[in-house]
Sequence to fold (105 residues):
Amino acid sequence: MRKKIIGAVVGLAALSAAGGVAVASGSAGGAAGGSRLDDGKDLLPQAKISEQQAISAAQGAATGDLNEVDLEQFSGRLVFNVDVGASDVKVDATSGKVLAAPHDD
Fold:
């Protein structure tokens, strides 16, 4: 009887651990499901477009890997500053228009 109880407890512990690993790996805020917004989270309520819309606009203006995204003031406007490849793309947070896409050196 004691062996059965120990076996059941060990089996239950193993299932719990496996479930915890699955939950932990599924909740990671990676590029696919989470935000890349680094600075400016407090400004999000002022933005009229989403972070994802800004990223899409930036990727249309520059090529390369998507890196950091910030929300900040630029020339008197609220912009998403999206690092795409070697470019620092500024997307107007109201209209979604690409304002600048300078190449970083």
User: Anything to note?
Assistant: DSSP finds two helices and five strands in the chain.
